[in-house]
Amino acid sequence: MNKPNILRLALALAIAVMMLVPAAPATASITQPFHATFVEVGGITETGSCGSATISQLGHVAYQCVVFNGCGANCELRTITFDDGSTLVIQESIVGVIQHGQSAGLFEITLTIDGASSTGRFAGATGGGTGTVVLPPFAVITASGTITLL
Questions:
Q1: How far apart are CA 64 and CA 54, in angstroms?
Q2: Among residues 51, 81, 78, which one has the least CA distance to residue 63?
Q3: Helices and strands in the chain, H and E counts
Q4: Over the stretch 14-44, which tens digit does the pLDDT of each residue have?
Q5: Cis link prior to 25 (omega < 30° from 0)?
Q6: What is the pLDDT at residue 4?
Q7: Distance from first CA to last CA of the chain, Å, rounded?
Q8: Residue ranges per domain, the chain?
Q9: What is the pLDDT of residues 75-132, one digit of tens each?
Q10: In terms of CATH architecture, what is 26-149?
Q11: pTM of the shown model
């Protein structure tokens, strides 16, 4: 066999081997809006508050908790575990107060998805949003924003 034929054979063999190696599946991220409601009725703990959570397009959880200052000063850490075992972790911070007559008023908050601490279908997720916290007799938090799932 002469040299050009050996090179052609080697090239053909390399192409054949490459065709046998399966391609890695493409992973597309999905960004979607969400609206969340957290109702913390009678769920006061030593470090935070607990209650239910409903997040549009993601699901409902009967019991979830937030740890006050769980990620630092003015950084609350909310952990939501869904029926499939996936955990969504959200960092919340109070950024303002809206006075409302003689009541305690409303807190304005920002939310940041903590994808590094989240698991399952939320692992690596990013996003965030804004919301309000209505206080006594119990806390009701409503928020909206976007979440990007990998």
A1: 10
A2: 51
A3: 1, 8
A4: 565 555 555 545 568 999 999 999 999 867 8
A5: no
A6: 59
A7: 51
A8: 26-149
A9: 999 999 999 999 999 999 999 998 877 777 799 999 999 999 999 999 999 999 999 9
A10: Beta Barrel (2.40)
A11: 0.80
